Automatic annotation (TrEMBL):
One of its GO terms (biological process) is secondary metabolite biosynthetic process. Pfam families: AMP-binding (PF00501), AMP-binding_C (PF13193). One of its GO terms (molecular function) is phosphopantetheine binding. InterPro entries: AA_adenyl_dom, AMP-bd_C, AMP-bd_C_sf, AMP-binding_CS, AMP-dep_synth/lig_dom. The lineage of its organism: Bacteria, Bacillati, Actinomycetota, Actinomycetes, Mycobacteriales. Residues 429-505 form the AMP-binding enzyme C-terminal domain. GO terms for cellular component: cytoplasm. NCBIfam families: AA-adenyl-dom. This is Non-ribosomal peptide synthetase.
Length: 523
């Protein structure tokens, strides 16, 4: 156990390692690395530069750049300043960025001018197009004069102050900004009880830093003196390159989504004797992938972790020992987290009965920035907690407790599905498609591809006035401008009309029968 809660939080934990093992490699992103000494120096310098530009504790530092070592330096610098970080990659839809900046108190946008995608002109234009107050701009690649009167960085920051802001998938076009406090993050790190040896810990996170799954192993490693490795922007979508990076650094702990792990696995055989744990998170873990893991990396422990963004990365875990018939359980609460499967009256349902999954404990985030109604709707009073005022989060996931006491995921109640780690509301994707002038009606279904992974198929009916029908490439471009990548359908099928069931609702079963493979459904 790292015990960062009792020792000042994550920032204090990282600084202790900077003093304890200054020459050890702390962070690797792609082909670049920083020792703990270098991470300490770079993050302190940036924190002081941001303070000189007027960034105050409690504000948000927007890190707008493609994934690199500088991204991590920006995150740590924000923490040192008493601010929160929010990582946004170039290409983020402007509509969504405008909504984000409207919800948060952004003190500065940090970017790198040597990247054509984040040139000073493009960032200024982005800030203007986002509307409202334009925050300070800080170019990481420019030569900045030393701060004449360096402001003192806060030594103690209240645990309730925000550590980071991360957006939900934004499939509706207006993402919500989830605010995680320093106490949330500290409790998340303390909940990790992974086995490791000091001086021989190398975690590998096959994730984008825009997603909170990247923090699952990264912050834990930095608080224990380990080395945290992530792919850079060029490698992120190349499974062979990502696996090569994991092999180069002889990773001991690896985390990925099941979808991407399926692509990584054939390249990981050389790590068979090195890996101490593989953690999969972000979407359902199918039994077929468990079988492939056991065949390729026999003896390497496999863990399935679960946690909505609103519960700070992950809060439940299941050590996968047996091959599940369909998908692996999501397990039991980690650390001080709690989990309950409840009925509509917030009463626990009997074992084996499907109910709504609620998660409680100190990892429950502060809620949605500037959206009190949305926060109140999903963050409710926890009747099971001893502490007055405690809350639990209504995940929107259906679940049941099996005979072994493990929680099983049973799908979503609100039309949302998980696609490559992101929550996507299919009805919102339909609305985007129907905004195309050539489309009259659209239905989006979650189906299973040849590997059993979740994919989206869009069925659409042309508008009566349409003279030229859009191609799949046209529709992909239309969706990509308005949705996150995971919400863009994988297939598009044009129909003369949508089939209706006797209830006058769209007959989804009939639509699935139109798919070439029979269209396996996904809960």
């Amino acid at each position: 156990m790292t015990d960062v809660v009792a020792n000042g939080g994550v920032m204090s934990g990282i600084l202790r390692q900077c003093a304890r093992v200054p020459g050890r490699i702390a962070i690797v992103v792609g082909d670049r690395s920083l020792t703990y000494r270098e991470l300490d120096s770079a993050s302190e310098a940036l924190a002081r530069q941001l303070a000189a530009r007027g960034v105050r504790p409690g504000q948000v530092v927007l890190i707008h750049q493609r994934q690199s070592v500088e991204t991590v330096v920006g995150m740590i610098a924000a923490l040192r300043l008493g601010a929160a970080w929010c990582v946004i990659e170039p290409g983020h839809p402007v509509v969504q960025l405008r909504a984000l900046l409207g919800d948060i108190d952004c003190g500065a946008i940090v970017f790198g001018s040597t990247d054509p995608k984040t040139s000073p002109e493009s960032v200024r234009d982005l800030a203007r197009r986002a509307g409202g107050r334009v925050p300070a701009l800080h170019d990481l690649d420019a030569d900045h004069p030393p701060v004449a009167e360096p402001a003192d960085l806060p030594e103690d920051v209240l645990a309730g102050i925000a550590a980071y802001v991360i957006t939900t998938s934004g499939s509706t076009g207006v993402p919500k900004a989830v605010v995680a406090s320093r106490a949330n993050v500290a409790n998340m790190v303390d909940g990790r009880d992974y086995d490791y040896d000091d001086g021989d810990l190398v975690t590998f996170s096959a994730f984008r830093l825009t997603w909170d799954g990247s923090l699952l192993k990264t912050l834990w490693a930095l608080c224990t003196g380990g080395t945290s490795v992530l792919p850079d922007a060029r490698e992120l979508m190349d499974a062979e390159a990502v696996a090569a990076l994991a092999r180069t650094w002889q990773s001991t702990h690896l985390v990925a989504t099941p979808s991407f792990y399926r692509l990584l696995l054939p390249h990981l055989t050389p790590l068979r004797e090195r890996l101490r744990l593989v953690t999969l998170a972000g979407e359902a873990l199918p039994g077929t992938l468990v079988e492939q893991h056991r065949a390729t990396l026999p003896g390497v422990p496999l863990s399935n972790e679960y946690g909505p963004t609103e519960t700070t990365v992950s809060c439940l875990a299941h050590p996968v020992r047996d091959v599940p018939a369909s998908i692996a359980p999501i397990g039991r609460p980690l650390g001080a987290s709690t989990a309950h499967v409840l009925d509509a009256k917030l009463v626990e349902v009997p074992y084996g009965t499907v109910g709504d999954l609620y998660v409680g404990g100190p990892q429950i985030s502060e809620g949605y920035a500037s959206r009190p109604a949305a926060t109140a709707a999903r963050f409710v009073a926890d009747p099971f907690a001893a502490r007055p005022g405690a809350r639990m989060y209504h995940t929107g996931d259906l679940a049941r407790v099996d005979a072994h006491g493990d929680i099983e995921f049973c799908g979503r109640f609100d039309g949302q599905v998980k696609v490559r780690g992101a929550r996507v509301e299919r009805h919102a994707v339909e609305a985007v498609l129907e905004s195309h002038p050539a489309i009259h009606q659209a239905v989006v279904l979650a189906t299973a591809d040849e590997h059993g992974e979740t994919a989206l198929t869009a069925f659409w009916v042309p508008a009566a006035a349409a003279t030229v029908l859009p191609t799949p490439r046209d529709l992909i471009a239309h969706c990509a401008e308005r949705l996150v990548a995971q919400a863009v359908p994988d297939r598009f099928l044009a129909l003369g009309a949508l089939p209706l069931a006797p209830s006058s609702k769209v007959d989804e079963a009939a639509l699935r029968r139109l798919l070439p493979s029979g269209g396996g459904g996904v809960a």
